[in-house]
Design goal:
The protein is mostly helical. The protein is built from seven helices and no strands. The chain folds into two domains: 7-43, no CATH class; 51-116, Cytochrome Bc1 Complex, Chain D, domain 2, CATH 1.10.760.10. It has helices at 7-10, 15-20, 24-43, 51-61, 69-72, 81-95, 101-116. Helix 4 crosses helix 7 (101-116) and helix 6 (81-95) crosses helix 7. The protein is elongated.
Amino acid sequence: MYGCRYPELFGSYNVWTLLININSETTMKLMKFGFPILGLMLGSFSAHADVGHGKALQDQSCTQCHDSSVYSRPDRRIKSLTALQQRVSMCKKQAGAEWDEEETADVVEYLNTEFYHFK
């Protein structure tokens, strides 16, 4: 019932047999390396970030402390997308903004699109 449809290509193995036969060392490698990499890939995927919403959130919260000139000054401290994400997370706490992960991503995407242009 759960056998392989193409035994000439894969032998007598099926998906269940392969999953059951994965040893603990392989499982640990997958958990140690595979899942974090997948998480980073999915976490940095910003196709759904709403730049307009990010601008509105930035205008509402960030301008309490500074204007937008800090994003475009020649000696700006933010040198990478990771640094930008960390700074937005820190600043949202200082401003008392209760943004969820999506809203934080929206602000990061707005700032990156408008000012930083990191890839």
